[in-house]
Every structure is written in structure tokens, then in C-alpha cells.
Amino acid sequence: MPVVRPPIDRLGADPGRRRLLGALLGAPLLASSGLAGCSDGATTSTQDGPVELSVFWWGTAKRAEITEKVLRLYSDRNPRVTFRVTWQGADGYYDRLATQAAGGNVPDLIQIDDAMLTEYAQRRIILDLSDRVADHHLDLRGLPEGLIRYGTVEGRTMAVASGQTHVGVVFNRDLLRDLKVPEPRGGMTWAEYFSWAEQVTDASDGQVAGTMDASGDYRALWLWLRSQGGEFYRGNQIGFGADELIAWFELWQRARAARATPGGALVEQADSAEPGRQPVVTGLTAASFAWSHQLPELQRLTDAELGLTGLPGAPGAQWARASMYWAAFRGTRHPDAVVDVINFLTTNGEAGTVLGHERGLSASLAVRSYAEGSITDPAQRRAAAFGASIADLLGPAPAPPPQGHAKVRTLLVTAAERIRVRRDGTREATARFLSGAIAALAV
């Protein structure tokens, strides 16, 4: 159920702390400390009178805690602006937003991901931020170019990354030590990765499979395609053909035959993408594929120490990918204030310290550097180290997925599941997927 908070005010804020933050985050200090690119968070809105902004996001109670804390910090620095916040789990989030959009009651500031960015832009639900980027009222100059590009639709800046993430292999470090099996390493070939997974299954006498079955994981397929010079999408069309998808499905069929993955019934538990159902957390496998920014959440769900490394294939298949975005409702009555809040969340050093890596690496390189020493959570530090290790190896960012991407993702999961339970062969499942994907993208 959505959790609705009353307006966030500043009761209980420490005036001394506010003065300290003002001194720490003043422009002269940031510049003299080599932190150019971190903003001082000054309000750009010229509207008189109080402003209350509604904010909506999905996530855990931990994400809610730190997001409310950083919004309160903004209000400390901008006394006229308060917030009314609503948050909930990922399930049903977009259904609720669709209902709000139909009634013209979208919150002023919303969290979205790349599955919906293009659709919300083309349906004119979210505000075009291009002019504000051009005049630097929304200052994206400290963000990686690929991360900026991944927030543009048809050449227009429609959202700003709230963090940067990558797809990684999350593995159970304690289990591998017990089994005396080496840890997986980034850049392995897919054949090497499956051979490693077979070792795990054999060493555990079949009690634990080496890897999750990611045949229906669009992220893994996308990187597999890019490692071979392909793409998941080209414009608003599927970027690959039947031969490539058949080869992908057959790759995983061979892994299943070699017992590198769990049985079909167990695999489907992870297809929901809910962290608590990831097989590396439930103990079904030694490794899962997940977003790097999810490592702290996954770690909280298990007593075993989790490690993180890159997916098989060339690291250059990855790109500076937005974990999620902040976007402004096109109909907001306070566009300047909303833009200023996005600017604060993205480029302010103290805000970045509070947010940590809950939504991924800070979008701003300057904030990332500023906040680095304040990250104490071991899992967050491992996720940050992984991001830093591949930062210079990333490939060019593609355009965000076209409208219909969410349906295409579901179709891929369905095709993979039908193959696993032998309802379809690889060719039949591929033909069914391509037919459905073409229809989903023809909007």
C-alpha cells in the first residue's frame, strides 16, 4: 500500500547544524576544495509565498527514510518550500501513476525508470527540461555524457538520472569459500561462466546451482547483444532478429542441460525481479544477475557476505545507465521550484552524502567524489568500487528504450518460461516473442 506522509516541515532541525551545512556547502568552499560541480542549493524560483511540492517514488522503507531526510535538508535551506511525500513498493507503482495521470493529478516530482521514460515523454506527462538545461538552471555539466543522453527522448532532456547503475553478477562469497570454488570474475566468456557455475553445482552435490537462469532477463540479453556489436533496440524497433534470439535461448538450454542453473520451477521465483526472491538470497544459487545499486538491499536479506562483479562478456557492452530518474510533472504549478529540487538532489554535495548509493552511484561526478569518504555501509562501498572499476571501460549509451518496452520485457520472460517447461521450442518461442514485440512497439 502507498505510504503517505504529511508535509515535511523543519520541526526539530538543529539550527547549529543548518549553519554548519551552510558553511560547508557555500560556493567558495566547494570551489577552493576542488569540488566545482557541486551546487550550493540556492533556490531559483522567484515566486513569492509558500510552496508545497508533492513527491512520489517507489522503494523500501530505507529509501523513504533517506529521501525524506534529504528533502528536509532542502527545506532547511529553502524555508518557503515544503513537501508532501508518498511512496510504495515497486509493484503497482505505475498503475497508481496511470490513475493519477488520467485524473490530471500527477505529483509534482516523480521517480520513473527507463521502461516508462519514453512513453511518459511522448504522452506529455512529464516536463521538457531542455531549456532549463540550456541555461544551466538545471546544471548537468557534472554528469557523464552518457548518463545525460540516457535521459533524453528525441533530443529533449525529459528526466535526470537519480543515480547510475550497471548490471552485475551478485554472488555468495561465503558459500564459495565453503565449497572451495573460486569467485566469478568480470569479463569471463559466457562459456567460462557456465563452466564455473557447473563447478558450483558439482561441488555442492547438486544442493545449490551455480547461477540463476537469466534466459528471460532483458538486461543480460541486451549486454550479450552489445558484446557482439548488436543492440536490443534500433529506434522504435527490435534491434535483433530470430537467429540472435534463438542462439541466446539455446545458450541457456545448454546451461540447463549441464545443471549450471536450477530446475525450471525454481527459476520462475526470480522472474518477478523482487530482491527477496533472488535465488542468491534464497539459497538456490551461488549467483544472480542484479543491478549493482541493489547490492545493499540484497545484502540486508541474507547473513552471507555477497560479492559483486561484471557480467560475462566485454565490459564495454555496459554504459552509463540511469538506475532511475527524477522527472517533473508537466502540469506542476511550481516548475521552477521542482527544477531546483532536482538540481539539489543531483548536484549538491550534502544531499549526495545523505542519499549515499541507495539509488546507485551519484549522477554527478563531483558529488560522487565528495561523498565517497562518507559511505560506511560495506555493501554500498562494494557497489561503488564495482562502478569505479568499469568506469573507463563503458561503451556509448544507447537511446532510452522506446514506448512499449515494459511489454517487450514481459514477452521475453514469457518466451523463456515456455521454453523451460517445454511448451515451446526455441524457434516457436522466438517467433511468438518477435510477433508480440513488433505489435507492442507499433504505438
From TrEMBL:
Residues in coiled coil: none
Domain of life according to the entry: Bacteria
Name listed for the protein in its UniProt record: Carbohydrate ABC transporter substrate-binding protein (CUT1 family)
Organism, as annotated: Micromonospora taraxaci
Lineage: Bacteria, Bacillati, Actinomycetota, Actinomycetes, Micromonosporales
